[in-house]
Amino acid sequence: MPRQAAIDAPAGMPYSRAIRAGDYVYVSGQVPFDPDGNLVTGSIEVETRQVMENIKRALEEMGCSMDDVVKCTCWLDDARNFVRFNKVYVSYFNEPLPARSCVESRLMITAKVEVEAIAYKPEGA
Description:
Helices cover 22% and strands 33% of the residues. Helix 1 runs parallel beside helix 2. The protein is an alpha+beta fold. The protein has a six-stranded mixed sheet with strand order 1-2-3-6-4-5, with helices on one face. The radius of gyration is 14 Å and the shape is globular. The protein is built from two helices and six strands. It has a single domain, classed as CATH 3.30.1330.40.
């Protein structure tokens, strides 16, 4: 299945923010950068909200919505933030919730959370 469309990453970054492959859209791991490229810092809730808004925006640019998300992978820099992260994360989805993996991991930037998403939306739908 050929890659058909992509959203460029910020200048100089070696990846696509999102890419369509057939009926699937893959959104790269999002960290709490605002649309101007500034790192949003604060509580886990503040950072999670920015991450989820980034995913939502990338999906919309690819013709999808949060309802099309079938799988997320989440990284938290501190597992003690898991419950608070979940409260914000779940507010972005309707039932049934996407499948998900969530792990504690040191992140590549000074952030508390990173989330990537896979959406399924048949082309032309």
